Known about the structure:
Blueprint: H1 2-21, H2 24-30, E1 35-40, E2 43-48, H3 51-73, E3 78-83, H4 92-95, H5 112-115, H6 128-144, E4 153-156, H7 163-175, E5 181-185, H8 186-198, H9 202-210, E6 214-218, H10 227-242, E7 246-251, H11 263-270, E8 273-276, H12 282-296, H13 302-311, H14 316-332, H15 339-350, H16 360-371, H17 375-379, H18 385-400, H19 406-412, H20 418-432, H21 436-450, E9 465-469, E10 488-492, E11 500-503
Parallel strand pairs: 2-3, 4-7, 4-8, 5-6, 6-7
Antiparallel strand pairs: 1-2, 9-10, 10-11
Helix pairs in contact: 1-3, 1-6, 6-7, 8-9, 12-13, 12-14, 14-15, 16-18, 16-21, 18-20, 19-20
Amino acid sequence: xxxxxxxRDIWVRTLGRLQIQLPRETFxxxxxDAHLLSEExxxxxxxxxxxxxxNWLEKRLHKQIHRTLREVAKREVDIRYVLSTPQDPPSEESxxxxxxxxEGNVPIADENTFHDSFRDIIIGECNRLAYAVxxxxxxxxxxxxxxxxxxxxxLYGGSGVGKTHLLRAMYQSVSAHGMRSLYTTVEExxxxxISSIRAQTTDKFRERYRSLDLLLMDDIQFLTGxxxxxxxxxxxxxxxxxxxxxxxxxxxxxPNEIPGxxxxxxxxxxxxxxxxxxxxxxxxxxxxxIKMSEERGVYLQEDVIHAIARNIVGGVWEVQGAFNRxxxxxxxxxxxxxxxxxxxxxxxxxxxxxSVRLSPDRVLEAVASFYEVPENxxxxxxxxxxxxxxxxxxxYLMREDLGLxxxxxxxILGGRDHTTVxxxxxxxxxxxxxxLALRRHLSDIRDALRVSGKHNAPTSGERERTxxxxxxxxxxxxxxxxxxxxxxxDVTMAPRLAVKSRLE
Length: 504
């Protein structure tokens, strides 16, 4: 088990490095679907989806892949590429939880350090890159006692995708080895900054935050509208970076989408490495449920775990909420949970507005409503741009959130060939990596699917309006001993427009 985990971890980190080395289009086209099947005596068997990809990797990218893998493994290795399509049933190797720590590269003083941090994270396509980069940054800091090239590292994504878990994993790992690290939130930073001004102890405040080896700050989206805090935060990270310290921040959106922050701070954040974490897919949810059941000692049949994973929308919190209800039913009513009673057990939970029972029909309905196109045209042969876009997004959501096979999706959409479906899925998946508007569309549709029995996704012609009201900063000047008055920031955002803010 340890050998398998180590080799899988090596391949994950190799992919992370290759994603940095190669152009985005090259990586997304040829390596995103490459996965480790097995390793024996230094031979890594890598699964690829088709013969064309196999030939391209062997002829064009093999040298770079081999060199990078050898550097990560720190030993002689060989690679063989074999066909292993996404429709293939998962092997025993691929169904096991992926390893979440690096062996041999970090001197671990306390064996429980990584067990309580990186080791218990479940890895999937939704967070693979974020995990690999976070681990790499941690290893670099411990080994070299200076910041990594990815500075600052920006982790962003919605609630329950694992941002805070990664921040705390990095904090625990670095702190355990005697380095000066601090995990905090924007709220804590702001409150301490205000208190230091009132007490005229700003020197102590700055000494605390500017003499670190690693600063990890959560919820950076709440910097919006806090002019004085923004100024202090910028000078803090400027001082830390100049001293060779590592900065890692997390928030619910890309730096380009955070309204009301200065352009120089936005530029500084973009100058590091922004990495997105997405909601867990069905496979990752299944692994989460298995882990929860093992920790709680609650036995769930495989078909029950499969049903929950397929039909609960959202992140870790939604999955945990569904599991808690099922576990309580089994524990307190002493009744076994079967797929037949699952709808009854989860019914109140599903109608609470946090999760929803998903089906292909619901996805098609929500997508058609969002893009304002007839649902029957999505299943037909229409080549209108709006219909094609809606059809591709529906394919992506059915693949990612429902876990349907390419053949199943093709049948639902009028009998389309699985290669056509795969092309559409890959196109949306690749475009979403760089297109903020598309990611906003996907988020809006998923939000609508969270509401049971309703499909209230805003249409693509509607403007999304967000009112970000800045908290009172109550900053007292040393000379005047006066409070700053509260300033409200009105922010209007549209999926296809850049963020603009206006002070009122």
